[in-house]
C-alpha cells in the first residue's frame, strides 16, 4: 500500500490542479484517505472518506492490528480532516466512531431485491442467490450457502 500511495500522489495532485474538483472521494480511509488528506493540505479541496472493514481498527484485527498501531497518528489526522465520513455497515460505523470519535453516515453496500424490481417477465417463485465478494473469512461465503439451504427447505424447492 505504501508503494501505491507513493506512486499515486503526483498524478493525483496534477489532476486536482487541472480539474479543480469541488470535492474528492476516498473510497477507503486507508490508504487512499492518505492521498486525499495530503492533496487537501496542498490544494484545499475537501474530501469525503468511505470506510469499509479492513481500513478501520478492529475490522480485521488478525490482518491489520499491527499496522494500525503504527499509522494511528496519521489515520487520526485523515479522519479529522475529512469534510464528511461514511461507512458501509453499522459494524464499521461503530468501529470508526470508537477509533476516531466521528460517527460516519451509514450508506449500505448492497442492492434492493424487493419484488417491485423483479423483471415483469418472471412468473411464479424464482429464487436466486448472488454472492459478490472475496472468498475470505470476513465475507463468510459459506454462511450464504447454509442460509440458502435453510431457505430452500422452507419453500419446498
* SSE sequence, one letter per element: HEHEHEHEH
CATH architecture of the largest domain: 3-Layer(aba) Sandwich
The helix/strand class is alpha/beta
Helix content: 40-55%
Radius of gyration: 20 Å
Q: What overall geometry do the principal axes of the alpha carbons give? A: elongated
Query: What's the overall average pLDDT, rounded?
Result: 84
CATH superfamily of the largest domain: Glycogen Phosphorylase B
At the third CATH level, what is the topology name of the largest domain? Rossmann fold
Number of structural units classed as domains = 2
* Low-confidence segments: none
Strand arrangement, major sheet: 1-2-3-4
Can you walk me through this structure?
- It is a single chain.
- The chain has 157 residues and is an alpha/beta fold.
- It folds into two domains: 2-106, 3-Layer(aba) Sandwich (Rossmann fold), CATH 3.40.50; 122-155, no CATH class.
- It contains five helices and four strands.
- A four-stranded parallel β-sheet has the order 1-2-3-4.
- α1 packs parallel to α2 (32-43) and α2 (32-43) packs parallel to α3 (61-81).
- It starts with a helix and ends with a helix.
- The model has no long low-confidence stretch (mean pLDDT 84).
